[in-house]
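ok so for the tutorial part 2 we go from a plain amino acid sequence to predicted structure tokens. step 1 is just haveing the sequence, like this:
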Amino acid sequence: MAIDMSQFLQTFFEESADGLEIMESGLLNLDIGTADKEEINTVFRAAHSIKGGSATFGFSNVASFTHHMETLLDELRDGRRTVTQSIIEILLQSVDCLRELLVAAQSNGAYDTTRIEETEENLKRMLVEETTAQTTTASVTSASAPSATTEAGTRGWRIRFIPHRNLFLSGNDPLRIIAELAQMGEMRSALISSELPSLAELNPEESYLGWNIELHAEIGRSELDEVFAWVEDECALDITPLEGEVKPGISSDRSQPINSSMAAQDAPAANSTHSPRPERRAIEPDRRSSSNDSGSIRVGIEKVDAVINLVSELVITQSMLSTLGENFHPDNIQSLRDGLAQLERNTRELQEDVMRMRMLPISFVFNRFPRLVHDLSQKLGKQVQLKMNGENTEVDKTVVEKLADPLVHLIRNSLDHGIESNPEDRIKSGKQVMGTVNLNAYHKGGNIIIEVKDDGRGLNAEKIRNKAIEKGLVNAGATLSDEECFELIMQPGFSTADEISDVSGRGVGMDVVRKNIQSLGGSIEIHSTPGAGSCFTVRLPLTLAILDGQTIAVSSQNYIVPIVSIVESVQIRKEHLNHVAGRGETYKLRDQYLPVIRLHELFGEKPVSSHNFGGLLMIVESEGRKVALMVDDLLAQQQVVIKSMEANYQRVEGISGATILGDGTVALILDINGVMQIHKNRSSHCAA
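step 2 — the prediction. this is what the tokens look like for a chain of 688 residues:
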């Protein structure tokens, strides 16, 4: 039975993606001149794994490209080269090209051939430039010791390659190795078939053949070792230099010439004396996984064990309840109640553990930003360092997937608008020349808090206000606090940039940031001090699937209010309720006047009673603003499963989703920020 290699493709692509992240992170951590040897070894191992895996699955363009990267990294780790900025840049560009090649291989799509070939040529040129001086030195050494045999003078190699029987079980194919040798120069081969059994005794999953090979190519031993690196422990291998003229035939017991067409799919003709440039072509469909699904996560074994233990508890509880049901007696009422309570506990714990399996460290998002800061700071001509804290903070997979774009905009904004362009300005302000962007993540209550903070010039409230007046966003005579001015940068099309560039200036970005964050049920706050820097604080729920909510009654309908938005609830007192001309109702609560939102009016429901004093006010907060929601009653607190309104019906302003309650009825989940916005728009319309 043949081994279906396609079943391992998805794992290969996932591991290769991890390897690319390791390579990029390691390269960004390298110090110019004196690099950490272990860091270089880590990058080298990642490149070596990608090269070996891609060769195994037939992605020869990926393997060929990675080979040049691996050679350069090998020279770095051996001390034959010192780390320079140009080397780091070319290797980072190579990582990008390698990522593009792998994506194309996975999706059977196209890639930018010109860009990849240019990068590959740059890698080769860098290797040649360095080795020219080494070759000259080696020639002088050779002249002083004529009896020594050097690889540079080797006309070719004699190779005896006999794979072990179990070679195929490791996913290796000897014909691919021979094909790679054929690309290096003129190759003559003879098949060794002395171990080949009769057809009746042949096992198609075992290897019985071997090869005697003569390879005419001016290559070093190290290049041959690379070809056999993945099978060196799974074969008998003997490599010796060719001396004198090569004989036309190669003798061996029961050996016969091997036709070069056996490797024709991957190698040039055997009589070619020079290795032609590999053809850049699209990846064939059978070389990739048939599934395009990348929606997988890695779960720690301890989380899986916790779920298995809880399932065992559930089975025990179910067995106990079944026994009680079969032999039920009124005297067993207390045992039944205990069993139901145990079932409730087990179900709740199982729900929490299953949700915990969906939690991923936010490092999945953060890991891409060191490269972003590195590239963008060089493009802007600024010296900027990124400091990250809380990368292991866990958040739901859905939030992780949708969080990247907003954070990219915020970090780009900090680098372009926040950090000063002129180092002298920073020195005059008592700052280091090197600017700093801090990316912090931590849990607070039922939310995850992400802070993007810079030590730049800060926001200029007056400049923002003048720009807003110029664009007609506010009236010339309007009085705005600094916080209200900062909120203006979230308006569509708003930008204070003096020049439009490919980084910023078109007013597209910050409004998208707010919309994306609000679509996740979160909020964003801005704090800034002139001359000291700015801080953008993103507040998001830990999960978009489960919500801790308070059920409220408004007329005949029930609604859910997220617990994290609730500050307190109070009984209405008539003397504290006021009407403000043009601004609706307010309620005085401890020397603070809060806008009152009558939910039955907002949703077009009939009030339970004509007066206001039988109801309650629920004080809620969103984005630093507080309002009082007038409700008829507070019902139970419970965890609810969120169902999307947009996916199942359509987007409804003020409603973030829906859920099914225990009695089978549907309750809508309030979007507090949306409710505030509806109330503000209606109040503005009435005032006008």
